[in-house]
Amino acid sequence: MPGTTVRKRNRSNILGVAAIAACASLALAACGSTKDTGGSASAGGGGGSGKVGVILPLLTSPFWQSYNDYVPKMAKSEGVDALKTVNSNSDPSQQITDINNQLNQGVKGLVVAPLDSAAIEAGLDQADRKGVPVVAVDVAPDKGKVAMVVRADNVAYGTKACDYLGAHVTSGKVVQIMGDLASVNGRDRSEAFRACVKKKYPKLKVLEIPAKWESDTAASKLDTLLNANPDIKGIYMQAGGVYLAPTLQTLKSKNLLKTVGQKGHIVIVSNDGIPQEFDAIRKGQIDATVSQPADAYAKYGMYYIKAAMQGKSFKPGPTDHDSTIVKLPSGILEDQLPAPLVTKENVDDSKLWGNTVK
Questions:
Q1: Which letter, b or e, does each residue of 222-233 get, where b requires 16 or more Cβ atoms within 10 Å of its Cβ?
Q2: C-alpha to C-alpha distance for 93 and 114, rounded to whole angstroms
Q3: Are 82 and 56 in contact (CB under 8 A)?
Q4: CA–CA gap between residue 332 and residue 172 (Å, rounded)
Q5: In the predicted model, is pLDDT for residue 312 greater than 90?
Q6: What is the model's pTM?
Q7: How many CB atoms lie within 10 A of CB 173?
C-alpha cells in the first residue's frame, strides 16, 4: 500500500469501540461488469439498498488522493450511494473507530482500505456482527470476513521490479525500500523481490530499508545506506507515492542522481503509477514503475460492495475485466487486477490512469 509519513501507531484499545447499527435504505440501480458466478450468499446490508461508507488509509499520498477522487465518480457509475470518504490518517486504531462510526450512521456496506492486515480484524468483526458486508481495497486482511478483496497481485510487483533490475544491472548492490511489513502488501513485495533475485540474479546483492511507508524514514535510511555503500547500482521503491521525492532528493544531495544513459545512473523501479512517477520516467530520473490501478480499485470496490449487499457471491476464476479471482490461504476471495509495467516505451499510453489525472 502506498503510505506516507505515519505516526506511531496506537494498536491499543482497538477492540474497545462499540457500534450501534441503524437502518437506512436507498435503492441501488443494477450495474456492474464482473460476471456473477451464481454462487449463493445471504443478503447483507439490507438486501442491496442503503448507504455505503468508504474509509481511506490516508490522504497524503498522491495515489490515495487519486483514489479518493475516483470514488464518487465510480460510485455514481456503479449505482452506489456512497457517503463522503473518511480518512483514517495512517492510524490503524483510528481506522477501527472510523468503521464503527460508519456503522453507527447506519451504513449497509463498507469499502475499506486496511492500514494493518492484522489490526483490521477488529473492525471487520464489528461489521460482521451487524450484518454489514465489507469489501477490502488494496490490502487483504489476515483474518476477518470480507466479501471480496480488490487488489493487484503484489507478489508480481516485487517480481517485475526484480526482473527489470536484473535485466539492467548485471551485478552489484541493489536496494529495496520496503513498505510496512505489518501490511500484506509490504510483505508480498519484499519477499517476492528477495526470492526472485536469489533465484534468477545471484550476482545481485540486495540491501534492504524497512521504511513502513514513511517518507522521512526512507530518506534518512537511504542517506545512511549510501554513505556506507556509494556503489549502489539499483533501487526498488515499493511505493512511489511516498518514496519518489525523498529518494530523488537524497540522490541529488549526494550527486548520485544521473539520468538514464549517463555514466553512474542508478536504475530505479517503483510501484504506484502516479503522474509524478511518469514525469520522472520522461525525464530519465527513474526507469520504470508498476501502475497500481487507482481507478479500478474504486470501480470494483463499488461493484463488489453492491453485489455483496444484494447477496451475490463469486468463485475463483477469470473475470470479464482482464483479472483473475483467486482464493487466498485464509479462504478470502481476491480479485487480482492487472498492473502493467510502465517504462519510457509506454509512459504516454492514454489508457494508464496516471495520464488521466491532473
A1: beebbeeeeebb
A2: 11
A3: no
A4: 40
A5: yes
A6: 0.81
A7: 17
